[in-house]
Each structure stands twice: as C-alpha cells, then as structure tokens.
Write a structure and sequence with these properties.
This protein has two domains: 189 residues, Ribosomal Protein S5, domain 2, CATH 3.30.230; 170 residues, GHMP kinase, C-terminal domain (Alpha-Beta Plaits). The chain is built from eleven helices and eleven strands. The strands form two sheets. Strands 1, 2, 3, 4, 5, 6 and 7 form a seven-stranded mixed beta sheet that branches. It has a four-stranded antiparallel beta sheet with strand order 9-10-8-11. The chain is α+β, with helices and mostly antiparallel strands. α1 packs across α2, α7 packs antiparallel against α8 and α9 crosses α10. The mean pLDDT is 94. The protein is globular. Bound molecules: alpha-D-galactopyranose.
Length: 368
C-alpha cells in the first residue's frame, strides 16, 4: 500500500482559559508548527509506531489483533494507540499499519502537541482504512481517546483548533453547541509565543483538580455548566472562596471571549490586547494556574514597546505565554523579552514568531 502523510498543527489559545470543559467559549488559532504522521498498511498483523526524537528513533510495536485496551506506558505512543482504541470502540475496522511521526512542536509548552499527535493519527487512519467522519466527530473521538485512555480529562479546544484552523483567522468555538466560527485576524498585529523553559504536565494533578472545582461550583450555583451562570448570580451566591474564584475566572473568560470577538471584528486590537492581559490576571488570582515564571514573562512583555497584551496560553502550570503585538515590532520585542527574562529568572525563554495557520482539515485537503 502507498505511504500517506497527514499533518496536524498545534494551537494557541487566545482567550477562554479552561472554559471548554465548562461548556463555554474559546478563541484560539492553529499555528504553523505541528505533527506529521506518515504511514501505510501492513500485512503482518502489527501496528508499528515510530518517532524520531533528536537522533534517537523510538519504537512501539503491538499486535493489531491484540485485545485492547492496550497497555498504557506513559509514553508518546499511548496517544496514537488511544486513538486506535477510540475508533475501534465506535465500530470502525482497522487493520495493521505503520506510522512514523515527526514534530516541530515543542511538547509541554501548552501548544497541544498531544492533540496534534491524535489528530494526525486519526486523519492518517481515516485515509488508510476508508473511514469517513465529520471534522467535529474527529475532534470528539480524539478528545475521548485522551479522556478515556490517556487519563487527561481535557475539553475539546485543542482537537477542534488543530482541525478547524484557517490561515489569518482565529477560531471562535462554542463548546456547548460544538460550533465553530472563523474570525478574521487583523493584519497589522501578530503573535509571539514565549516558552518559560519549564514544561507543564497536565496528566493528572492540577488540571483534573480544576475541572472538579469548576463542576462543584456549577453544582452549588444550580447550573449544569458554569457557562449558564453570570457574575451577578455569582456575587449573590454563598460559594466558598476557592470555588467563587474558580467560577469568577470561567465566567469572566466567557465574557472576555464574546467581547474579544467583537473587538477583532471591528479591528480594535488595543482593547483585544487588554482583554488578554486581564485574562492572565484572572488566571493568576482566581484560577491559580499561572506560575512565577509565566507572571514574570507577562510583566516583561507588558512593558515592551509594541506589545498590546499578554497571557498564559493553554492549561497553565508552566508552558508558554502568548503576546499580541504590532507586526513591525515582533522581531525586536521577542529578543528583548527573552533577554530580560533570562537576566531576571535565570531560565532561557524560547520565542516563536507565530502566524495563524491552516488546520489539519485544510492542510490535508479534507476541506478546501
Ligand atoms: C489544555 C486542555 C484544553 C483546555 C486548556 C485550557 O490545553 O487540553 O482542553 O482546557 O488546557 O483552556
């Protein structure tokens, strides 16, 4: 069988932090970096996964007929195998195959390398085994794979962003209706993604704890999802301090996303930038998913010429910030932020100048 190749990008979350699993709104974009999965069918009954990390090729081989659930190893290969399992559980017939992965997406940076791995896998398998699913079904299956088999109870943001992105557009996602709208991104501004040098780890721990605290807050407010509540209700409620702050973050983020879409549509980039900075402040104070390093990066970015706003992006607890700034300043601002951060923290920041890119559906010709 001929070898096929599918690319899935990472994503940057622009506004709407931890809102996805609260049935809320998110504004994100696909980025140029991502995961490329190449593969073909095999006739020997094996699933053979390989990836090149530095000089080393990592390999995992399992029998395609082996009774799933597969044995989780805590390694990268759990993600593709989780996708295989999710497809099988839905009744899709998959044979033996080879898949090899290449990535230019840093892992642990909050840019969704795991979703890119899942999405590139599901598209490759769809092509290899003639499976036809809508973009949203692909996203749901990948999320299910990660929730059920890898053990991170993430929402649908990362998978949707990787699939539905469009060059020069932000993605507005309504997570309750599971609907996407593309919003044109002004040309005179650009993004920097600045990694703080300390990877985040979402598996278990704080991420799942936040999810639990949000669902507890929703329960006490008498709603199914925090999306259905508002600040006035929250102020009148008698929620304990911790849950009140968690709910304030989610409710505030939902409001910021809706206003942010209006600002982008009217080209008001200055106010959009202010919303990003307000989002970070809420992460720091209310959601407590920032870190001293991310706070330092945001504070340095804010005082750098040309910068309109900055916030942590993704799950938090390490990873990266995203900076909105005027396009003409981005090169100089990136070096200034990195050198000042290194001087003050002792950590090396990694800066990516980032354009809003096509998602996997477009990149692989699933939609034009
Ligand atoms: C991670 C998760 C997403 C989302 C973000 C925070 O990236 O995978 O589902 O919850 O964190 O917004």
């Amino acid at each position: 069988m001929d070898s096929l190749c599918c690319f899935a990008p990472g994503r940057v979350e622009l506004l709407g932090n931890h809102t996805d699993y609260n049935g809320g709104y998110v504004l994100s974009a696909a980025i140029p970096q991502g995961v490329r999965a190449s593969g073909s069918g095999r006739s020997d009954g094996l699933i053979r996964l390989s990836t090149l990390i530095g000089e080393e090729t990592l390999l995992r081989k399992v029998s395609a007929d082996e009774t799933f659930p597969f044995v989780k190893t805590g390694e990268w290969s759990d993600y593709p195998l989780a996708v295989v399992q999710a497809l099988r559980d839905e009744g899709h017939r998959l044979g033996a195959f080879d898949a090899s992965y290449r990535s230019d997406l840093p892992s642990g940076a909050g840019l969704s390398s795991s979703a890119a791995l899942e999405v590139s896998t599901i598209l490759l398998l769809s092509k290899l085994f003639g499976i036809s699913l809508s973009g949203m079904d692909l996203a749901r299956l990948c999320r299910h794979a990660e929730n059920q088999f890898v053990g991170v109870r993430c929402g649908i943001l990362d998978q949707v962003s990787s699939l539905f992105g469009k060059r020069d557009h932000a993605i507005f996602l309504d997570c309750l209706k599971e609907e996407v709208k593309l919003v044109s991104f002004p040309h005179d501004v650009s993004l920097l993604i600045v990694q703080c040098g300390i990877p985040h780890a979402l598996v278990g721990g704080e991420y799942n704890a936040r999810r639990f605290q949000c669902s507890e807050a929703a329960r006490r407010l008498g709603v199914n999802f925090l999306r259905e509540s508002n600040m006035a209700q929250l102020e009148k409620s008698l929620l304990p301090d911790l849950e009140r702050r968690r709910a304030a973050h989610i409710i505030g983020e939902n409001e910021r996303v809706l206003r942010g879409v209006e600002f982008l549509e009217s080209g008001n980039v200055a106010d959009f930038g202010r919303l990003m900075t307000a989002s970070h402040e809420s992460s720091r104070v209310n959601f407590e998913n920032s870190t001293p390093e991310l706070d330092l990066l945001v504070s340095i970015a804010k005082s750098t010429s040309g910068v309109l706003g900055a916030r942590l992006t993704g799950g938090g607890f390490g990873g990266a910030i995203v900076v909105l700034l005027s396009r003409e300043d981005r090169h100089q601002a990136g070096s200034l932020i990195a050198s000042e951060y290194e001087r003050r923290s002792g950590h090396r920041a990694h800066v990516m100048e980032c354009d809003l890119a096509d998602g996997a559906l477009i990149a692989n010709g699933f939609v034009s």
